[in-house]
Amino acid sequence: MSLLTILTGTPVWVWILLVFLIARGINALNDREMEVKRLFLLPLIFLFWGGSGVINELAFPHWGMVSMLAGLLIGGSVGWLLWRSGPRLRIKEGTDLIIRPGTPLTLIFIIVAFATKFALIFFLNVEPNLKYAFNFNLMFGLLSGIIDGVFWGGTLNLYFTPRQAEKGI
Predict the structure, then answer these.
(1) What span, in angstroms and rounded, lies between the C-alpha atoms of 135 and 26?
(2) How far is CA 59 from the centre of its chain?
(3) How deeply is 123 buried, as exposed, middle or buried, from its count of CB atoms within 10 A (0-12, 13-18, 19+)?
(4) Per-residue pLDDT tens for 44-58?
(5) Which of 62, 79, 96, 159 has the fewest CB atoms lying closer than 10 Å?
(6) 30-67 as b/e: b if 16+ CB within 10 A
(7) CB 68 within 8 A of CB 146
(8) Residues in the chain with pLDDT < 70?
C-alpha cells in the first residue's frame, strides 16, 4: 500500500480535524485570553475521539475501555508532571477571563496524538482481524487513554494549581 493510497483513502473529515487541531496547537504557542471552560476543549475532543474509537472499532470494547481508563491515569500523571514546571494561568483583571500561557507542549502532543490515532485506525483498516486480537484491543485502549490523559493532566494541573495557591494548600 503506497503513501498516496493511504493519504487519498483517508476521509476528508480526518484532514479537517487535523487542520483544526494544528491550528489550536499553533494558537497554544502564544499567551491567549479565554474563558475557563475553553481549557477543557482539547481534552474533551480527545476523550470523545478515543472513547468512540474504542467502542466502535474494537471487538472487546469493555476491555478496551478498562485499558483506556488505565491509560488515562498514566497519561494524566505524565501530563500533570509535564505542565507542572510551566508558566501558570493568570486571571485577567476586571473580567472573568483567564490568560493561558503559551507552550509548545500542546502542539507537540496534538501531533503525537493524531499520528498515534491515525496509525491505530490505519492498522485496523489494513489488517481488519486486529479488531479481534485481544492484545490489540488492550493496546488501542491504553494508547487512546494515555494520549487523552496527557491533555487532562496538563489541563487539570493548570486549573487546580492556582486555586491551591489561593487557598494556601
Answers:
(1) 35
(2) 23
(3) middle
(4) 988 998 999 999 999
(5) 96
(6) eeeeeeeeebeebbebbbebbbebbeebbebbebbbbb
(7) no
(8) 1, 162-169
3-state secondary structure of 136: helix
d(CA 167, CA 81): 21
CA 100, 101, 105: angle at the middle one, nearest 5? 110
**Looking at residue 88, what DSSP letter applies?**
P
Structure pTM? 0.86
Residues 139 and 129: their CA atoms lie apart, in Å, by 15
pLDDT at 1: 65
In one-letter notation, the amino acid at residue 10 is T
48: left (phi over 0), alpha (psi -120 to 50) or beta: alpha
Q: Which residues pair with 52 in a beta bridge?
A: none
